[in-house]
Specification:
This protein has 361 residues and is mainly β. It is built from 2 helices and 16 strands.
Length: 361
């Protein structure tokens, strides 16, 4: 029932937004499925990254590991006009030392609509830049390694007072052996004054696991989710020593249940963060205090009642389409104050390069 209600609400929001846009199709900030441009083009996009990510935490011995490998993505885009785009490609993962070479290849195949204020994606589309804003407590930052694509729908609106994004991502299709699982959520930022430093951000995610079909004894139905609401202050454009500077404080909650075993277990806590950057260096500190959280796709450190993480990053080199960076993370949790993790990433992205253009008439 929860799944059906959530899907109905999500589809309704998309339908209402599209209908509203069609009613005002003469303005520049609405959804229009037809563009004035009759120019059609093809483009190609090549990107990827190399990663060495050490997760050898003493506080989480049962799940600690070192993650290393490379992801390579290549796709071809067909631009029907200036608004409507179709993209097809592949995204392959190779973990160093693994055999065969590409342990997993994810297809890329989606429709994209983009104008001044709206983005709509449908299909298998990259997660990067769309859902990577989520706090690690709700969606772990390792998802970009093993689940780089969203398989579903996304609708996003951007304006001078902020933005709002809704999405749904199917993890698994229900069969006699596979569980029916999906993630869904929404997030956004609201600025009371478009040029002011104050803002309110919010994040919500929900996971539904309906088990196999027919339902096996060892596959009970689960519901899991979490949310954060934060009050922020962005001083980036003020006269400070830093290139970027921001502060946030807010609350976090989570809920989890296994329907045949127990009802919802709720957890509550407070979060606070600080970000500053100067030239090639940046600092990000996040603090949590509250009840233990169990969020399946969240960072496992948030099962702790108190936790602090400080990230110290250095952009070692930036050259045209390349960016190499190091990050040292210091983790403090009860009885474990000296946990350290290190990350090196080399990101390459040539952008979208047009390879052909013609008049669609």
């Amino acid at each position: 029932m929860i799944k059906k209600i959530y899907l109905i609400v999500f589809v309704s929001l998309i339908t209402i937004s599209a209908s509203f846009g069609q009613q005002k199709k003469n303005t520049a900030d609405t959804i229009r499925l037809k563009s004035n441009s009759n120019t059609t083009s093809f483009d190609i996009h090549f990107n990827g990254f190399v990663f060495l990510d050490d997760h050898e935490y003493d506080a989480l011995i049962p799940i600690r590991k070192t993650i290393s490998g490379t992801r390579t993505a290549l796709d071809v885009g067909f631009n029907a006009d200036s608004l409507n785009h179709f993209v097809v490609g592949v995204n392959g993962l190779h973990e160093f030392g693994g055999k065969p070479y590409f342990l997993k290849v994810d297809p890329v195949a989606y429709y994209n609509f983009t104008n001044k204020h709206w983005i709509f994606n449908a299909g298998d589309f990259p997660r990067q830049g769309l859902l990577t804003q989520y706090p690690r407590a709700l969606l772990n930052d390792t998802l970009i390694y093993y689940r780089p694509n969203v398989e579903g729908l996304l609708l996003s609106n951007h304006g001078k007072h902020g933005n709002e994004t809704l999405w749904i991502d199917w993890l698994s299709r229900q069969t006699a052996t596979d569980r029916n699982q999906f993630l869904a959520g929404f997030f956004g930022k609201f600025k009371p004054w478009s040029t002011g430093p104050l803002y309110i951000s919010h994040f919500f995610m929900f996971m539904h696991d309906a088990g196999t079909k027919p339902l096996q004894p060892n596959s009970p139905i689960e519901d899991n989710g979490g949310a954060q609401v934060r009050l922020g202050l962005d001083l980036t454009h003020k006269q400070t020593l830093f290139d970027s500077l921001s502060f946030e404080v807010g609350g976090m909650g989570s809920a989890h249940r296994v329907r045949s075993q127990f009802n919802f277990i709720y957890s509550r806590g407070v979060v606070a963060s600080f970000y500053a950057s100067y030239k090639a260096f940046s600092l990000y500190d996040e603090f949590y205090k509250g009840e233990p959280n169990y969020i399946i796709y969240g960072d496992p450190f948030y099962v702790k009642t108190i936790y602090n993480r400080l990230d110290v990053s250095y952009a070692a080199f930036v050259y045209k389409h390349l960016r190499g960076s190091f990050m040292f993370s210091f983790h403090q949790s009860p009885s474990r104050l000296t946990d350290l993790s290190e990350v090196f990433r080399l990101v390459y992205d040539i952008g979208r390069v047009k390879i052909a253009q013609f008049n669609s008439n």
